Amino acid sequence: MWDFLVVALYFVSIISIGLYAGRKQTGLEDYALGGRSLPWWAILASIIAAEISAATFLGTPGEGFVLRNFAYAQLCIGAVLGRIIVGKLFLKPYYDYKVVSIYEYLQKRFGITTRRWASVTFLISRVLASGVRLYFAGILLVIAYMFIVGQDTAAPMETVLIYIGALTLITVLTAIYTTLGGLKAVVWTDVLQASILIIAVGTTILLLFFTIKGDASYAEAWHTVVSTVADTSNNPCGVENLQPGKVFDLGITGEGFAADVRNILSSEYTLWTAFLGATFLAMATHGTDQDMVQRMLAAKDSKTGTRAVILSGLVDIPVVLIFLVCGMLVFVYYSKVGMELPMNAEGEIEQMKVFPYFIIHHLPVGIRGLLVAALLATAMGSLSTALNALATTATRDWYRDVFNPAATEQQLLRAVRWLTVAFAALLIAVGAVSAWYVVMNPGARILPIALGIFGYTYGSLLGVFLLGMLTRTRGNDTGNVSAMLAGFATVVTLELLGSQDIITHISFPWRVTIGTIVTFCVGCCFRTPQHCVDNRVRG
User: Fold this and answer.
1) What's the rounded Cα separation, in Å, for the pair 188 and 178?
2) Whole-angstrom Cα distance, residue 163 to residue 356?
3) Residue 36 has what DSSP assignment?
4) Residue-wise pLDDT tens digits, 416-426
5) Which end of the chain is more exposed for a tag (fewer CB within 10 A), N or C?
């Protein structure tokens, strides 16, 4: 009963905020940018809430449980470096040109074709990626439903239908406050959602520690935690070369230069990835993705937006560490107190389900409801921003400029709201297909798919934006299309060759880096028309 009350209170709160924030909206810019009046600390909280998707909420503790080290956290280095570059290089041109959709910048720098190619690349990538990530939000709700009805398993199609119901519930509720309140509703609900997240995860860590501690002293409890995490003989997930406690990894194999390069390119967690791959990834996600940049454009000026995005990178460090620690403590709980682990049909531990299984089956009443609310908060936070950014981009880049150039502000406001509803339906469809695929293929790894979508396309986006910002006379519409296609084709080719073991498999952050470099270099082969150069100088 208390669990339901906590979750119900959360839903009432976010819908109320959405209704309140939606007052006095007069046009698309109010809806999309909140009148450019939001404080930096609210934007910072909103960026954090959007980054911590359901995949992060479940996947990062899963990493802590399986690997029992902090290697994943070294990617925060690149996250900070990339955001510094975004704040110092990207935001000022966006503000100077007074863009609502960031792809308007590309039209003013190169031409309409570059803008439309970049815009449609974002729309397709974001729909697919956010739809797949929506599936993760349903995992906890499905486990909770099974727990409530007293079932351990269900028939495949019944499970798929439960997923569809859960995804529809989450998306409809998110679409309500996003449609009514626009970016103001998104940001202010994100502030609430980030607060709930911090409280919930912090409470869980304390509860885990004191449960493990029992009647022992604090020193004894700490020793128990450290020794259990460090015990390589206790390896239920069968990890090869388990290295508990590892933080930094240079990726050096000792087998020669070629072997080291192959290992670095195929590894997600090395210092090379942290300083290079993760930096390019952060520039792409926070500098060329309307989803993230739209928040920064809601500040009164570029300096305020820069402060928010750089600080968000610094805040990411303790957030990631907290999630990893949470996963490690769940491992200690499993080892010392005891808990069943979720298994797939092949008898393997399902990493993504370890933390939600612990939440539903082992947390006390009330705390369990708080964690369910926290997961819903992360899912709805990232979903609301995706809906807002998708609808804004489609309205500004396509509805206004292509289908209805004479649209009034009221018509644009009506269009962006209807497009929010349309994109919500699309995301439900993609999430439902993802759920069906995973249920029907128990051994499938959906997380690499969710992340990999960005890997194929965001290098092309980042490359063309960097071409505009780092050069003055290079790049044009024809060349940019060729460059973006070349970047995409290179990444796809490398992925296909890697899947056939013809070459080393390239990890996700490096795919963005390679796509960026190829796009930038090909684009540099084409000269910018003089009228675009003059327009850039005036801007």
Assistant:
1) 11
2) 15
3) G
4) 889 999 999 99
5) N
- Alpha-carbon distance 51 to 187, whole Å? 13
Provide mean pLDDT across the span 501-510: 79
Taking Cα atoms as reference points, which of 313, 292, 293 lies closest to residue 95?
293
**What letters, b where the CB count within 10 A reaches 16 and e where it falls short, cover 338-371?**
eeebbeeeeeebbbbbbbbbbbbebbeeebbbbb
| Residue type, position 421, single letter | V
Give φ, ψ of 527 to 5 degrees: -95, 140
Please state, in angstroms and rounded to a whole number, the distance separating the CA atoms of residues 41 and 45: 6
How many contiguous H segments (helices) and E segments (strands) does the chain have? 22, 0
Q: Which among 321, 309, 209, 280 has a CA at the least distance from the CA of 466?
A: 280
What pLDDT sits at residue 384? 82
State how far the Cα of 23 lies from the Cα of 125, in Å rounded to an integer. Answer: 31
What is the C-alpha radius of gyration for the chain, rounded to an integer number of angstroms?
23
Best CA proximity match to 264, nearest among 60, 4, 7, 513: 513
Residue 400: closest CA among 186, 100, 185, 111: 100
* Cβ-based neighbours of 252, under 8 Å, separated by 6 or more: 260, 263
pTM: 0.85
Whether 366 and 6 have beta carbons less than 8 Å apart is answered as: yes
State CA 184 to chain mean position distance: 20
According to DSSP, the residues that pair with 527 across neighbouring strands are 474
Measured CA distances, 84 to 46, 81, 282, 335 (Å): 18, 5, 10, 41
Cα separation, 440 vs 157, whole angstroms: 9
Report d(CA 189, CA 186) in Å as an integer.
Answer: 5
> Following DSSP, what letter does each residue of 159-186 receive, concatenated?
HHHHHHHHHHHHHHHHHHHHHHHHHHHH
Rounded to the nearest angstrom, the gap between the alpha carbon of residue 403 and the centroid of all alpha carbons in its chain is 31
- Do the Cβ atoms of 423 and 392 come closer than 8 Å? no
Cβ atoms of residues 421 and 175 within 8 Å: yes
343: β partners: 349
| Number of residues assigned to the chain | 539
pLDDT of residue 537: 47
